[in-house]
Amino acid sequence: MELRMTILIVDDEEKILEVVKAYLEEDGYNVITASDGEAALNIFKNETVHLIILDLMLPKISGIQVCSNIRSRSEVPILMLTARWEEEDKIEGISIGADDYLTKPFSVRELVVRVRALIRRAYRNKEPLADVLVFNSGDLIIDIKKFLIKKNGYIVNMTNNEFKVLKALLTNPGQVFSREKLVEKAFGFDYDGVDRTMDTYIKNIRQKIEDNPKEPKYIVTIYGMGYKFME
Q1: Model's pTM, two decimal places?
Q2: What is the phi/psi pair of residue 183, to 5°?
Q3: Which of the residues bear the PTM 4-aspartylphosphate (predicted)?
């Protein structure tokens, strides 16, 4: 069965919400709407969302803050809408993690085309990462949304950075990541740690999810190349 993707539209203009929602639903997407930043974050926390259309100027919590908050814990594609023309605003949106932007007023048809392109780029040759992943009949359970990991039925405590590394590996199971690529995938280009820090993260994660950390079955080392998560 083909996955029907869900798009979250965040804008305080009711007309924009109605029109964009109608066009995207016509194009085959599930659509959820929010009229302020606080509602958007609550929806993202509790729903599976595959792409976000995000207005820059929002009540309660700004679009910039929403984008920054979401990008700190997810790689979901974000298309930012802005009524401003200043180049600095566009640069700021892209720099904190927006994948694309449109300036108001915009063509809804162009927006739909950009949405298709972002989704195609983000999910090419792979299904979006499920919210809950279960391995070996429940030996290991990872709830991405709730930031919850269970090993043999017991909750595992994991730091934020350790979870980011684990999630980066899970996003591309079977793919070998060098230390440099894993740092980039987990923390972004601006991470100021050293590559060898990754070895410490991997060691700690193995201690928490492997039956025998010295003979790992989930996160394995490919000597001379890096690490990969075994499906």
Answers
A1: 0.58
A2: -60, -45
A3: 55
pLDDT for position 22: 95
pLDDT tens for residues 100-146? 888 888 999 999 999 999 988 887 755 556 678 888 888 999 888 77
To which residue do tokens 């085959």 refer?
28
- The domain defined by 6-122 folds into Rossmann fold (3.40.50)
Q: In degrees, to the nearest 5, what angle opens at C-alpha 11 toward C-alphas 130 and 113?
A: 65
Q: Indicate the CATH number for domain 132-229.
A: 1.10.10.10
Q: 117 vs 30, 92, 160, CA distance in Å?
A: 17, 22, 31
Residue 178 and residue 223 in contact, taking contact as beta carbons nearer than 8 Å: no
pLDDT tens sequence across 217-228: 999 998 888 899
Give the DSSP letter of residue 177: B
Instruction: Give the DSSP H or E segment for 159.
Output: none
Asked if residues 120 and 98 have their Cβ atoms less than 8 Å apart, the reply is no
Local structure of residue 230 (DSSP, 8 states): -
Q: Which residues contact 5 (CB under 8 A, 6 or more apart)?
A: 29, 30, 50, 51, 119, 123, 128
pLDDT per position as a tens digit, 151-198: 998 999 988 889 989 988 887 778 888 888 888 778 775 555 555 688
DSSP β-ladder status, 51-55 and 78-82:
parallel
Whether the Cβ atoms of residue 52 and residue 24 lie closer than 8 Å to each other: no
